[in-house]
Write a structure and sequence with these properties.
This protein is α/β, with parallel strands linked by helices. Helices cover about 35% and strands about 20% of the residues. The chain has helices spanning about 20-25, 35-40, 50-55, 75-85, 95-105, 115, 150-155, 160-170; strands at about 5-15, 60-65, 85-90, 110, 125, 130-135, 140-145. Strand 2 (about 60-65), helix 4 and strand 3 form a beta-alpha-beta unit. The longest helix has 10 residues, at about 95-105.
Length: about 170
Amino acid sequence: MPDGRLKWRGRVRAVLGDHIDTDVIYPGRYLNITDREKTAEHLFELVYPEIRASIQPGDVIVAARNFGCGSSREQAAAALKVAGVGAVLAASFGRIFFRNAINLGLPALIAPEAFAACRVGDELEIDLSAGVVRNCTTNQSIPAAALDPRALDLLAAGGLIPYLRRKYAA
C-alpha cells in the first residue's frame, strides 16, 4: 500500500495457485537475517525468483486458496512489504499470515474471483475502505471482502507499531 493510502493503482506482478506456504514466500533458512531491508532479497527465491526481481512499488500479488499457509513466521509478510508489494489478493489466507500482514501494514484482501480475473501485468485499482477492486485493464469489478475498520486503521497507519506509537504519543 503505497504511502499509507487506502486507495491506489498497482500492477499484478504474479498470479499464483493454491497453498503458497510461508517457506515459498520467504525460505526458513533466512530467518537469521535481522535487517528487514535484506529480507526482500530472498522473497520467492526457491520457487519463483523471477517475481522478486520484477516487483515494483505498489505491485499486487494474486493467489488462489490458502496463501501464506504453514509456519506462523511474520517474515513472509514482512519481506513482501519490504519488497514494495502493495497488496495481496487471494481466495483465502492462512489465518496467521493474514493477521501478520495487517499488523505489518500489508493489505491482504479476500477476493475469491481475483485468481480467475487477473493476469500478470493487469492494472488494478484497489479501494480498501470500500472493499472494491477493479481490474482497469479489463474494466472488470472483482468482489473483495471489506476489511474491518480496525484493520483499516492499522493499514492507514502503516501497521500495528506505527499505529500504537501515534495513539500513545498523544
